[in-house]
Design goal:
Layout: E1 3-8, H1 14-26, E2 30-35, E3 41-43, E4 49-51, E5 54-55, E6 66-69, H2 73-80, H3 83-95, E7 98-102, H4 106-111, E8 119-120, E9 134-135, E10 140-143, E11 146-149, H5 155-166, H6 169-178
Parallel strand pairs: 1-2, 1-6, 2-5, 6-7, 7-11, 8-9
Antiparallel strand pairs: 3-4, 10-11
Helix pairs in contact: 1-5, 5-6
């Protein structure tokens, strides 16, 4: 079973966090919701406060198979200012371990120089912040160990693609049918 961490910051887009967490947990993955705010209660961008499973400082990164960043304007700004998270994203990238981001959050990868020579996608209008990437408009883009997605409307597809990476296409397809994806 894969161990995955998703990082929550004040202003995160709730659906972009909850849809992948739900799909991955249904698929048997161990997903930890991790607050970067120094407190477990994190304020979503639409007033949905969430109790994280643990704080950033408590996470054992060595046990993780994937790191996920949800978007949201303020949430992404907060993720962009978290130096410990940046350090760990760089380590995962250097090791070829999975890193994933949706909506505005792929711009964090761009800022860190992790997208050079890669294909990626993000929220429309932010493509210029995917520094060094070939920006696509596909709902979900997988380029090696880096997975990016467009936004709230692609959250379920994003979650299903992440599940597929740790299982297989048939498992993801069965999950899509079970949750009534058209």
């Amino acid at each position: 079973m894969a161990k995955i961490a998703i990082f929550l910051a004040d202003g995160f887009e709730e659906v972009e966090a909850f849809a992948p967490v739900d799909i991955l947990r249904r698929g048997g993955m161990e997903v930890s919701m991790v607050s970067i705010m120094g407190r477990k209660t994190v304020n979503g961008s639409h007033g949905i406060n969430t109790e994280a499973d643990l704080l950033l400082e408590e996470l054992d990164f060595a046990d993780m198979d994937m790191l996920i960043l949800p978007g949201g304007k303020q949430g992404t700004e907060n993720l962009r200012s978290c130096t410990l998270l940046h350090e760990k994203l760089r380590e995962f990238d250097a090791a070829g371990k999975y890193i994933a981001a949706i909506c505005a959050a792929p711009t964090v990868f761009g800022k860190l120089g992790l997208l050079k020579g890669k294909k990626a996608t993000c929220y429309g209008g932010m493509e210029g912040m995917l520094e060094g990437a070939e920006a696509l408009t596909d709902p979900v883009v997988v380029d090696g160990h880096i997975i990016t997605s467009r936004g709230m409307g692609t959250s379920v597809a994003f979650g299903l693609k992440l599940l597929e990476l740790f299982t297989d296409a048939a498992t993801a397809e069965n999950m899509a049918k079970a949750v009534m994806v058209p």
